[in-house]
Amino acid sequence: MIVAPLSSGSAGNSYYFESDGTSILVDAGLGPRETRKRLEQVGKTIEQVQAIVITHEHYDHIRGAGSIARKYHIPIYLTQGTLDASRINRDVTTTIVFPNDSTFTIGELNIHARRTLHDAADPACFVIESRDGTRVGVASDLGHADAPVIRHLSDCDGLFFEANHDLDMLRMGSYPWSLKRRIMSRFGHLSNDDSMTAVQRMIGADLKNLCLIHLSQKNNHESIVRDMATRLLSRLGATNQLELSIAKQFEATGVYEIARRRPARPRLPALNTQMALF
Ligand SMILES: [Zn+2]
Ligand SMILES: [Zn+2]
Questions:
Q1: Long-range Cβ pairs for the range 145-152 (8 Å, 24+)
Q2: Is-contact 31 39, C-beta < 8 A?
Q3: Which helix (H) or strand (E) covers residue 228, if one does?
Q4: Residue 119: nearest ligand to its CA?
Q5: How far apart are CA 209 and CA 220, in angstroms?
Q6: Ligand 2 centroid distance, CA of 201 (Å)
Q7: Domain tally, the chain
Q8: How do strand 95-97 and strand 76-78 relate by DSSP bridges?
Q9: Is 80 exceeded by the pLDDT of residue 275?
Q10: Could you say which DSSP state residue 268 is in?
Q11: Which one of 7, 19, 62, 112 has the minimum C-beta count within 10 Å?
């Protein structure tokens, strides 16, 4: 599977996924022109994109969805709560509603949705699974990583996971207290500390790519997150197993080719074949 974070953070989120001829965007927080430009940075075209899957209705995740969908005749997949809370015009846009906590298919990709805790109508995170069993999780905008989300994102080959803010920077920073309280609540965003605790619980034997996403521009710094994650990985003895990266806001982060090392579902010979050997 090919994964390319095009933009990550409160100024816009968009992630490109491709496998076996199916290409989708998870979130469309950039307008059509900027999305096209970022896709070109990673050697892709917007015409390749067959669907937009939305995590929740906040502006930084949905801003470009309607215009991209109409311009390029792409359907938007979202929960009913997200659709109702959004400004998407259903008369001129193809929308496909999926129930949260369900699995649906787009072309060759299975999308496993799981509800998240965030101050939105019906927010979701996803595991995207390709035909060969490669699983890539993408989750941001979590007030708290609860046990169902941790379970959902375990056993992934690639994980794109929020590390939003440094608690001290947020506490000491210039945000009004009401906003600080919202960010720190169970329906806000994950602090670096909470993110590392969750990552520690989710790292499995198959995880090869860990990318930390949705960093706050004001209350975090790439070097803080990188140091914390590096320390965690070395404590877990996972440094050699994993490629660690931090997603960028103002340019595409790069292209990740993620594959399952061992087949997800080993093929056993059919029973009658086996019997015939004796
Ligand atoms: Zn966001
Ligand atoms: Zn949000």
A1: 145/190, 145/194, 145/195, 145/197, 145/198, 146/117, 148/114, 148/115, 149/114, 149/116, 149/117, 149/125, 150/198, 150/201, 150/202, 152/112, 152/114, 152/125, 152/127
A2: no
A3: helix 222-235
A4: 2
A5: 21
A6: 23
A7: 1
A8: parallel
A9: no
A10: P
A11: 112
60: left (phi over 0), alpha (psi -120 to 50) or beta: alpha
How far, in Å, is the centroid of ligand 1 from the Cα of 82? Answer: 14
pTM greater than 0.70 = yes
Q: Which two tokens stand for residue 22?
A: 């199916």
Ligand nearest to the CA of 60: 1
Q: Is the pLDDT of residue 93 over 90?
A: yes
| pLDDT category of residue 89 using cuts at 50, 70 and 90 | very high
Q: How confident is the model at residue 263 (pLDDT cuts 50, 70, 90)?
A: low
Q: In whole angstroms, what is the distance from residue 117 CA to residue 70 CA? A: 30
CATH number at residue 201: 3.60.15.10
Distance of CA 200 from the midpoint of ligand 2 (Å):
23
CB 120 within 8 A of CB 98: no
Centre of ligand 1 to C-alpha 22, Å, is 25
* Distance from Cα 255 to the centre of ligand 1, integer Å: 21
Q: How confident is the model at residue 277 (pLDDT cuts 50, 70, 90)?
A: very low
**Domain range holding 223?**
2-276
CA–CA separation, 179 and 74 (whole Å): 35
